[in-house]
Amino acid sequence: MKGRRATGLLACRRTSREAYPTKRRHGSTLVESCVVLLLFLTLLIGVMDVCQILFFHHFLQQRARAGARYAVVHPYDSAAIANVVVYNSATTGTTGLFGLTPSMVVVSLRDAGTVNARVEVGIAGFQMRFVTPGLVRDFTPGPFRAVMPVECLGEAM
Question: Model's pTM, two decimal places?
């Protein structure tokens, strides 16, 4: 057994190990690891950007709906409706949710004084920033709007 030469798969393994020195194999492993890590981080940050876009899309649409819901059951006051959208309160707050400002909110009353009266709340001009380096840094989603029929319980509009 000692004098016999290895054949088949065992021989291939022995020759392949002998063909590549240990230092060379470690260098290629380092390069492959860096490439895989770079691709993984790019994918991870890209997923974070997509999730951020989806979050802000849902958030802004929900804020427009909240303002419209407030508007249909309270007497029409565009400043109070804008405050509900921005600060989640009818009174003025200190900082808006995620950087919203009252100037980004547009409130309008359509067909006032009729049975078809509707309130429209819109959000435009909200800026969000991406996490991914090298992409466009600012992105403006929207505009977002919500329209609901007025139900002010018999009060004059």
Answer: 0.71
Name the maximum alpha-carbon separation found in the chain.
108
Decide: 67 and 105 in contact? Cβ < 8 Å. yes
Place of tokens 């049975």: 115
| Closest C-alpha to 63, from 112, 129, 124, 117 | 124
- Per residue in 70-117, pLDDT (tens digit) is 998 888 899 999 999 999 888 888 888 888 999 999 999 988 888 888
Q: How many CA atoms lie within 13 A of 49 on its CB side?
A: 18
Domain that holds residue 79: 21-149
Domain count, the chain: 1
Residue 2 lies in a domain: no
123 sits in the region (left: phi over 0; alpha: psi -120 to 50; else beta) called beta
Angle between helices 78-87 and 22-73 (to 10 degrees): 150
Q: Could you tell me if residue 5 is inside a domain?
A: no
Task: Give the pLDDT confidence of 10-23 residue by residue, as tens digits.
Answer: 555 555 555 555 55
Residue 16 lies in a domain: no
Rounded distance between C-alpha atoms, residue 69 and residue 150, angstroms: 9
Provide the CB-side half-sphere exposure for 152 (13 A, CA).
20
Does any domain span residue 130? Answer: yes
